[in-house]
Amino acid sequence: MQITHYGVRGSIPAPGKDTVGFGGNTTCVEVVTSKGQRLIIDCGTGIRKLGLNLLKEKDIPEIPIFVTHVHWDHIQGLPFFLPIYMSRFKIRFLGAKESFGRLYSTLYDQMDGYVFPAKLQEVQSNINYQVVDDDEGFNLGQIHCDIIRNNHPVPTYGVKIHDNGKTFCFLTDNELKIDKPQTEYKRFVEFCGGADLLIHDAQYTEDDMEKTRGWGHSTFLEVIKLAEDAGVKSLGFHHHDPERNDRQLEQIIGEIKANTKIHIFGAREGEKLEI
């Protein structure tokens, strides 16, 4: 299974010389399974570059896009995803049952001909929608994917992909330590149990949390504890704060590496990971 990060920044794009190392585009991840099935997770600004790469491929089957939630930084790149304008592409948007109504309406409202000049209902690609039940998940061919409700102000979901004996978990926009959780901490431990790779939102430091508790994001240390409790083999920090530059991220990650036996790293735009 190959995982490629096309956008790793949280909240708003953060381009510039101080963020070029980790990247400034908002959330978009591509997963390609051992059988060649593709899954795109989220449509942040990183999806523009992914779309350009897809134009170079021939005979692409249906492209499934799992949208974790409809906060703007996770859908704002869709109008610039060129495959939606071309008739040779089939695209399937997947969303959890709890959030599906707003997913459908928000994608259309974002491209209504007024907010953005092109209308989603008039694009040339063949677009379909799939509602995903929390307890059932969804399939990519013979590959099964599970989902879990995250702790975030709006319905938001993480995803787990099982492929050829390997497990990849992706949980963005998730606050692990919160007074009234949608999902209890132990459920996340179970969901991520034994994963070969966990990519998790770590937007904040412990000091940041004095001001941002309840915003729906986690700290580096909270995410490390989850990975340790779940027996995760490798942990990548994701959804980097737009105010955090490369030097600061490298310093934070470097300092905490000494305190855990788990392989940890900061997700970088353009990075390809194999598990």
TrEMBL record:
Classification via CDD domains: TaR3-like_MBL-fold (cd07715)
InterPro entries linked to this entry: Metallo-B-lactamas, RibonucZ/Hydroxyglut_hydro
Source taxon at top rank: Bacteria
Name of the protein: MBL fold metallo-hydrolase
Metallo-beta-lactamase domain segment(s): 38-240
